[in-house]
Structures are given as C-alpha cells and as structure tokens.
Amino acid sequence: MPEIALTQAPAHLRHGSSIGQPLTRRDGHLKVTGGARYAADNHPPGMLYAVLAVSGIARGRVAFLDVPAAKAHPGVVEVMTPANKPPLAQDPDAKTNPFMFRLDLLQNDRVRYANQSIAVVIGDTLEAATEGAALLSPRYETEPARTGLDAAESFVPPGVGVGNPAEVRRGDVEAGLASASRRIDAIYETAAQYHNAMEPHAIVAAWDGDRLSIDTPSQGLAMAQGRVAGLFGIPPENIHIRSPFLGGGFGSKGLISGPQLLGIMAARLVGRPVKLVLRREQMYGPVGHRAPTRQRLRLGADRDGGLTAIDHHTKTASSSFDDFFEPASDASHTLYASPAIATSHEAVRLDTGTPLFMRAPGEATGSIALESAIDEMAQACGMDPLAFRLRNYAEVEPISGKPFSSKALRDCYARGAERFGWAPRPLAPRQMRDEAGLLVGWGMGTATFPALMFQGEARAVVRSDGTGVMETGAHDMGQGAWTALAQIAADGLGLEAEQVEFRSGTSDLPDAGIAGGSSHTATAGMAIHNAGAAVIAKLADLATGDQRSPLFGAGNAGVTARAGRLFRRDDENRSESYADILGRAGLAEIEARGKGAADPAAQSVYAMHAHGAVFAEVKVDPDLGQIRVTRLVGAFAAGRVINPRMVRSQIFGGMIWGVSFALHEQAITDRRSGRILNANLAEYHVPVNADVPSLEALMIEEHDPHVNALGIKGVGEIGVTGSAGAVANAVWHATGVRVRRFPIGIDDLVTTMDAN
Ligand code: MOS
Questions:
Q1: pLDDT, position 468
Q2: Cα-to-centroid distance, 254 and ligand 1 (Å)
Q3: Nearest atom, ligand 1, residue 517 CA
Q4: Which pLDDT belongs to residue 556?
Q5: Atom of ligand 1 nearest to the CA of 359
C-alpha cells in the first residue's frame, strides 16, 4: 500500500515557532489543496468496495436475505452474512472494560436497532456493491420497538459516563429545600443527537497473512489497535493503523465501531483489500450518539439569593444490549455553591444503537438544564442572572469540598459581561426591541469542563546534524493537534520548530492517549515535553561529563537548552551546540522517551476544571416565533494556551454547538418503527453560516501550577457548555416564554407567546 508522507508536508517548513504563537495549521495547506489523504482516499491495488446492508426495523430478526440475487449482480464479488463471516477470536458482545463497545459483527440474525449492519456486499465497484446490497431485499420477523423515555421500566444504572457513580449526595437536600424561601422544580428535556462529522466512518483494510494494514479515522489509535488485535486474534504489533487526518470525530471515533471492523472482516473473507465507507444515514445507529434526557431540577434559595439545595435527577436511555449512560446530572457537581447537592440518574433500555460520548457528554446535556434552572431561580429571587451567579460562586468545588487547582471564573464573568455590554439588561423579559420590532433578549450561562488527562507517551530524538524528531501517535480531528503538539515538541527539544520532524497519526508510534475528554493537548503534550526534557538531560550528561566541553562540570541542573545549544545557567557565555556534543561523542543521535499522565497526588488535593462565561443575544420575531442568535460572547479560562488561533477555533466550534443544542439539533424517532426519521443533513439540523452569529471568544489568562507542568487544561468541549444555556435563557428574556424542551422551536414560541 502506498505510504502517506506524514512528515514531508510542505507546511512543515512554515511551522516556525513554539508555545503561545498563533501559528496556522501545519496541515492546512495540504487540506485546502486536497493533498491531505483521508482514510477513504487510499486505494491500494486490487481493492474492492464493501457496502453495508442495514436493518430497516429496530427490533426482531432477519428472516430472509436474497443472497443469490445479490451475488448474481454483475460486479458483486461476495456477500458476507452471519453464515459465512470469518471467525473471530472474541465474542463481539463481550465487554471487559468500560471503554469497550458491544458490536454488531453479523454474529447472528438478531436486530437490536434500526440501521444495524445485517450483511456486507463486496463488489468491484461502489455501484455494483450498492446495487447488490439493495437486491438483498431483507424480510424480517418484527417485534415492537421500544422508543422514548417512557417505553420501558427504568432502573438505576450501575454507573454513568465512564465509571462515575449514578448517585452522589452531599448535605441534606430535602432540608435545604424545606428551609428555602424560593424554590424551582422544573423538568427539562434534551433530544437525541447524532455525531455528524463531515467525514463518515471509513476504513480501507488490507491483510497480508496475519498482518493487517488499516486506514481509518481514529481518536484512539492504541485502543483501536488493541480491540482489533483481540477480535482477530493477532498481536497488536501486526496491526498498522494510519489515521493522519480526521474529518471530525466528536467522540464517535473514540472507539473503533462495528462497521469499521466489518470492513476488516470483509477484506479477510475475500482475501483482497477492501474499502467500506458509511453513508450518512448509516451513521445514525452503529457509531454512538448523545442519548436523550429528561432532567428534573429542584433548587432552593434563601431570602438573599443564596442556594440552599440543588437536586438534579436525570432520566436517560441506553441500548438494549450495552451500557452507556449520559451523566447529565454530574453537571451540578462543580459550579454553584450549595450546602446540599444531590445528583442521580435512572435509565431505560430502548431499541436503539448504544449511546456514546458526544462532545461534552453529560456536561452539555446537564449544563443546559442547570443553567436554565439557575436563570429561573435568579428571576424568582428578583436578581440579575449574573449577580445571582456571583452570589453563588463556588470558592471550593461544592461536591468534593476540594479547592480548585485554579479558577478564573470571576474574571470570565467580568470580562465577558463587559465585552457584551450586559450591565443595562432589564430584569423583566420582553422589554427590548430592535428598530425592526423584533424582540431582543439577553441570556447567559456558565461554562465548565474538567481538566482531564489520560496516559500518553512520546519519543524524542536529537540528531548529530542538530535537528530533532518527536514521535507520538496523536490524533488530529481538525482541532489542530498536529500544530499545537509540534509547538510543544520544538520547545521541549530546545529547537526551532522547523528543525523538528514531528511524526504523528499512526499506530506504530508511541501511544499518545485518546483524543477525547479535552485531554489530548495536555496528555500528549506532557509526554512530548517530558521526552524532550529526557533527551536534553542525556545531552547534558554527555557535555558536562566531558572535559573538552565548555559545559564541563556544570551538572545537569545547571544547563538550559535553547536554539539547538546547551547553555550554562550561571554563565550564558559558555555553551555548546547539540551537533558538537554528539559529534565529539561519536553519536549519530540520541533518544529518550517521556510519559504524560495526571498526577494522582495533585488530583487527590485539587479539583481541576476549565471555566467560562457565555453571553448571548437573540432576536425573536413576535409574530412568527423565528429565533436568530445575533451575538455570542464567551470568556474562557483554560490554563495555558499553546496556540491561540487553534484554541479560539476550538472554542468557536463549541459555542456554535451550543447554538445547535439550544435551537437546532434533534434526531426524531418514528414511534411505530423505531427508525430515525431525519437521518440526513437536510432534516437533521445543524447551524450553517447563516445561523451563526457574531462570535467572540476572549481567553482569560490563567496559570494553573497543579494540572500539569505545562498548565494545560484543554478546550475541546467547554465551549458547548454555557453557550447552550445562554441561548435558551436569551430566548426567555426576549419572549417571556420559558421553553424547557430542547431544541427550542418556532412552535414552542408561537403557541404561547401571545398569551404573554
Ligand atoms: Mo470527546 S466526546 O471526549 O471526543
């Protein structure tokens, strides 16, 4: 198979500075010129095309497939069904850790959700395979589909998110509510959402004996490699995955999915390379989604507007066969000081694909409900929403009682409000109109997301020509990881960026940890930083122990690295180049490895979160109920910013998703069939340019000495939190109508607006 020249991008030469610089994407030129090769762009010689046949029912069994008709179609090479699929070394329904997804790999004729794979047709051309799949004309034994949060008996899930307890309490919530002079008791509903990355899940798989080469987008190369190894019974090192570019992921590419694995199985079955790409509608099922929620918030406040209790209960759904539970109530753990907090979850099992992480899983769903309830309570207390939030500002993390490793939320509130011009906001709703007579409303929300780290590793090399190499199998979903991590690499090696060859995006490199949980820059970045420091320490050992070096006797601690040279700390006039040090030692290169991971000692003491404040302006047509977001201003404190351009763009993406959450996105399930009615980008609404307002993201300077040595907190997910609530609250402020079901639609407003 042709190799992608990962390290020879012309853009590499433009990448010319280090931490803190607003560099453009080093892969940007490749992307805008079409030179970036995504997974499905790889066409190895002899490649065949595989097309999924998916279930048209949500529950039951496949009673008949017309395999002979499909096979008879010209160009169809093979049809893979439960009858002839290659054997697997592992049961796809086995689950040995919470980061495993139970898979549909044609293990039997059961149908557990609509769009489940029921066969794979392999052909010489995409057209032949597509036609073959249509000719399968499946017949089913259909059982009634369980849809909606009331379709089944609910239970308390064993855990929510990845291993969080389903119920947490601190203090006496009932007492807090009983003693309150103001109470809010409201139910908020959020819709199911599906990941709609521009690049659908795709795979090109080629076997060579028991070695396997895969091109596929991944947010977690090492986990994918391990999963494939387990399922196919081959050693992980026999599997080479290339994932240099992703056209978005949002969590859906964190775990390798069933359809990707079916591509590998198809290649094994036919003994030729196979490419399989999901069609847009096929993404609504087997690759995860954001589960719907119904959240009950009960808040109590005293006469001064101080919260006395927060009770946040979430009902959500998982699939009939696997466990992922959207941890929405956990959003109430960290934001507002209250002497009593209780969070709990219940769930039902529905005939749906298994839900999974989607950008700020739990935080996004929980945040829009909590921020709406806080807004309602501020109103009940007769307080400005910002003043109310400041009144209930948490100096320590409310649920754990731990101090924050750092918290610049007050600055976010102040700077965001000032930039937005919040001060003259009338307390009562429906007070503002623009010159065209549209209702104008202002709302706000608080943003927060934990500063997580997983585990990663990097390998650093310094070569005798004075250049360096940094290797880590990181993932660039489009967020700019390649660029930001290469900046850290340059600083870590004490080299100019153009002197560092940054290798990333393949599974043969050290495991960079998963690109999820907004943790990638911190985890992979710390691995890179530590690998750089380790290789510099080796260089320093060579120099300071050698009488011929001007650094002789300086000792490791007495040396700094900069611009390809080591300097004595106490005398900058005494220095030596990396090239000279290695040359004298007769070494072509030296290498060292470094790891990145959270510090458990610091984590046991401190609560670690990024924070922000978002302010929204909406305009609502008083007759038609049409809502337009006209301004969105966010101020965010997320520790050290490696690349301000990438960070701003990440935050914008999150804020736009907030607009989407509040006003656009929802998957609608047909109650009769259990199928999703709008599994396409025409009817599943996401904001387009015309829906996106003037956006501003202010980054508030923040030095966190505890999260990690670089002070990085991560920015991938925080933008969606806060923003969704801000938009919803602005809609209330414009209209006086409190809509508690999201997304808010025209119909929610026109039926009630007149009455106000
Ligand atoms: Mo994200 S939902 O952690 O990719």
A1: 98
A2: 7
A3: 3
A4: 57
A5: 2
Looking at residue 316, what DSSP letter applies? E
Residues forming the active site: 717
In sequence order, what DSSP letters do the residues of 206-258 get, joined into one string?
Answer: EEETTEEEEE---S-HHHHHHHHHHHHTS-GGGEEEE-S--S--TTTTSS--H
For the entire predicted model, the pTM comes to 0.95
At residue 98, the pLDDT reads: 79
- pLDDT of 10: 29
Residues whose CB falls within 8 Å of the CB of residue 289, separated by 6 or more in sequence, listed in order: 192, 193, 194, 195, 352, 353, 355, 356, 358, 667
Task: Return d(Cα 100, Cα 730) in angstroms, integer.
Answer: 40
* Cα-to-centroid distance, 250 and ligand 1 (Å): 5
How far is the centre of ligand 1, averaged over its atoms, from the C-alpha of 516 (Å)? 4
Q: CA-CA distance, 432 to 622, in Å (whole number)?
A: 12
In the predicted model, residues of the chain with pLDDT beneath 50 are 1-17, 755-756
Residue nearest ligand 1's atom 4 by CA: 251
pLDDT of residue 497: 87
Which residues have CB under 6 Å of ligand 1? 219, 249-251, 254, 357-359, 361, 516-517
The H or E element spanning position 141 is strand 139-142
CA of 287 to the centre of ligand 1 (A): 13
Q: Quick one: pLDDT at residue 581?
A: 97
